[in-house]
């Protein structure tokens, strides 16, 4: 129990923040006038600036956007989305539904990103002690496959046999030349895992949590920042589901996650812009 | 109390979502493959697509980003941020702190955007019934100033005599030719209010909630979507404060909002990009 | 927007609480030493003392306990409980699951207590202006049945044609001589409603929200306190479901509210104590 | 990542709860008709029944009540209470404020109960392997004092040099003959710690978290249930503070935890009842 100043005695200590300065008529975000940033910086870049303290390079900014977009929604399947919808059906506020959805990210849901980062950190430490990457990856996989009947964090998905988001994010990181040791070790793990297909009974490709863990590592983001990005990126999805619930459905309905369908637009090509 | 199917009887009704389609190895966001959007669309544009259903025009996309950036953080002053920090100091998870912060947006905090939108809708209805905008604005302001000792929603700020974010957002909307009736009526209200300075005792310029209300109106966003955007835009700020609290401060400290300082970088120019 | 002292300037105003005094080695709850209350007062009585400021009479204390027990759980059917379970299945903390469940009390779920209280207040005001109770009740019911296709707040239940909790609570209030004008007016409303069975298509008996609204009114509790009691009483239920979810079920499961069963003990008599 | 049935395919598995059975007009809590329990069982006893599955003995029921009362509020000092008040000042709902307060129980706040239980379990395992209790306690304390500059979990308090709640709870457990091995080992730890006063620089008496951990252990409650009891017991306090905030204070005020006072009743004797 850390010592603490007693309340009511005027004893609170001076403290400081280095995020945002507020003076009358002037707001500085990490030293930049917020009104100067408006119109000159995308939301993804501003999130990076706020969390890390510096304006990202164009490559890193584009990768941030890709990462945030990749996790923006996953339909009505995740428990976090169902928590948000169950709150929304009672007529509660959108912010209440979003808060409940945010709470629905536990160790088993989104937690893979943090756990995979720990695994990659361990692997890269082995490498830096002189062990070749292939051997380090094989050793880690052997240990994980023996001790657990669940896939290593960052691999496998309950819906997808190939996670299209993971594939695209790693490809973008490669194109933008932001794929370094973390991404390489992630691929080494995937390769080592593929030798165990017989044992695991199914292919265990890299999933989006794993790809985000590796790309954040290569971008130099601390692991707790990578974890926060998952929450930030999914909040629009939680809000969208809460809004749809209240717009389309009767209040107090029984929300069954096994009888839902999709009635939005069929597949259509992305309007031509950046390739 | 709406009728509801009893649980346990297999009676849940089929229901549909039009946001995101999930099939093995394929995720469609509003009809677009999510992996195709990654790297081609900024996070702000993707938020618009998810909430509204269509890809924004470049002007609207840039305005979305500006709006989201404008509200990303306001230092340690808002109660929502203090709620997030008080949760973070107990060693709770970042998602718990973010959820508590999201709950700290009540009618008096961020609620101005929704209330101002209602006011603008009322004003524009008067105009469409033939009353000139100047008269409609004067009538509304007369009523509001007489009945309340608080400023009309969207005007005045506890820190700023001119809200730099509001000024910049309305200027950008003008440059990008997205300022229509809502923005014009907001300015008409500001003009009518300025006649009452003697009465109100202080200038009541447009604040960021008011500017967001008007710009969202001119972009055609439903008012509940505009409300959700405030939450979406502030979540990175809440996460940043929770992370800073746990990184820089001792656990279980007394967080006094009157003895804080800013120790981040001094004002610096935004690196040259879009002007 | 209410004026507010700016942060960072040392300008926070002195403020006071009359709930609990904290000095070294001494905790006073509403003036009573907390350690003196321990072992001498039930939890229900202590909740009354904390919220109202005085020790309840034995009758009121017993009614408080009955009210809190009546709402302690309602199985896996309410959306609030499903929100808590969807959070728990991700491996999140019990407090995160409880918080999500608390958020799942919106206007359509538990909100009847507050709405019914407003209705009863309106009715009793009519009575105090000289209108006989029977007429006042008929007038209100006529208006409500004409204007809405939903039952008046406090009447009807999606599962029960007779709500056993409501019946017992009102009977207890009668036995303990705490049933006054509010309970009488609630019964008058029920009687007036029964004339409309043909119109409403089903019997609309008093539900637990209505009974709690009336009994709280007769106990002299402000309506917002009555509202808070619903949350307080259901928190043990939310915690119990979150604990059961994590103890009995696999993580990240699809929680369908239509295929659940009950496998607890069959009906058994309450061990003899107070009758 | 645990395997999961895909949504939309009708594939959710049957599942069961043993807490509460809901049939039309009949609610069974752990096999007892809820309406039969109303008026015959206190809220504290019903909480035990719901969480554990059986009606408590009178002694255990009285201890439950004492435990729940002991933790009902601790004034405006805890960060959880400040989180609830910061949400309430924005005009948000009481349930939103309560949820934020619940989230403000992290490892450093209330977490001692769980950590102390783990310590007691470890100690009792040493004893059951034949080591005398005094030696086992001394060994654990030696290790903890050497390795950490914070007190062992369950000992010391930032305000109190003697925690009056802990003293009373352990005394009650003794009177009611519910103090067994856990309480004895807790006292053994306190004794061993007292030898280290010179080292720790201050007395480290048993705190309420430690007393609750031991008493729950002796009552046979699983540690996660003991953890849930802390949340359940504090919710009334969180609600009371949120209600007081909205009743007594201006909205959007700066809530400084260093300039508060208590203006409730002065110390008064508990009205005579059970001793």
Report on the structure:
The structure is a homotetramer of 275-residue chains. In chain A, helix 4 (79-88) runs antiparallel to helix 5 (94-103) and helix 8 packs parallel to helix 11. Among the domains of chain A are: 25-56, no CATH class; 112-224, Orthogonal Bundle (Cytochrome p450-Terp, domain 2), CATH 1.10.230. Chain A has a 3-stranded antiparallel beta sheet. With 275 residues, chain A is mainly α. The termini of chain A are far apart. Mean pLDDT of chain A is 91; it is low at 1-10. Chain A contains 12 helices and 5 strands. Chains in contact: A-B, A-C, A-D, B-C, B-D, C-D. The interface between A and B is large, with 121 and 121 residues.
Secondary structure topology:
4 copies of one chain form a homotetramer.
Chain A: E1 15-17, E2 20-23, E3 26-29, E4 32-33, H1 34-37, H2 43-52, H3 58-70, H4 79-88, H5 94-103, H6 111-128, H7 133-147, H8 164-175, H9 181-194, H10 197-200, H11 208-218, H12 223-248, E5 260-262
Antiparallel strand pairs in A: 2-3, 3-4
Helix pairs in contact in A: 2-3, 3-8, 3-12, 4-5, 4-12, 5-12, 6-7, 6-9, 6-11, 6-12, 7-9, 8-11, 9-11
Please work out how many helical segments of chain A DSSP would assign.
12
Largest sheet of chain A: 3 strands, antiparallel
Largest interface: A-B, 121 and 121 residues
Provide the spatial order of strands within the biggest beta sheet of chain A. 2-3-4
Task: Please give the oligomerization state of what you see.
Answer: homotetramer
Calculate Rg of chain A over CA atoms. Answer: 22 Å
- Uncertain segments of chain A: 1-10
Task: Say how many strands of chain A there are.
Answer: 5
């Amino acid at each position: 129990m850390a010592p603490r100043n007693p309340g009511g005695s005027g004893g609170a200590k001076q403290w400081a923040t280095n995020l945002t300065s507020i003076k009358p008529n002037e707001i500085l975000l990490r030293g930049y006038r917020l009104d100067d940033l408006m119109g000159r910086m995308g939301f993804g870049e501003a999130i990076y600036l706020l969390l890390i303290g510096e304006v990202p390079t164009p490559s890193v900014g584009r990768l941030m956007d890709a990462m945030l977009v990749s996790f923006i929604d996953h339909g009505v399947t995740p428990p976090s989305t169902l928590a948000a919808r169950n709150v929304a059906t009672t007529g509660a506020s959108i912010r209440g539904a979003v808060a409940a959805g945010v709470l629905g990210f536990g160790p088993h849901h989104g937690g893979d990103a943090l756990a995979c980062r720990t695994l990659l950190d361990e692997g890269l430490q082995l490498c830096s002690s002189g062990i070749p990457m292939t051997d380090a990856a094989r050793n880690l996989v052997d240990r994980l496959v023996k001790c657990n009947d669940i896939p290593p964090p960052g691999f496998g998905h309950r819906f997808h046999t190939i996670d299209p988001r993971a594939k695209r994010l790693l490809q973008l990181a490669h194109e933008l030349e932001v794929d370094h040791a973390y991404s390489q070790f992630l691929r080494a793990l995937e390769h080592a895992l593929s030798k165990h297909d017989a044992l695991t009974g199914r292919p265990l490709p890299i999933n989006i949590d794993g790809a985000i863990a590796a790309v954040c590592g290569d971008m130099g983001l601390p692991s707790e920042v990578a974890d926060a990005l998952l929450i930030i990126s999914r909040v629009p999805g939680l809000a969208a589901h809460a809004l749809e619930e209240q717009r389309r459905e009767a209040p107090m309905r029984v929300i069954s996650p096994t009888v839902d369908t999709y009635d939005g637009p069929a597949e259509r090509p992305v309007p031509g812009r950046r390739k």
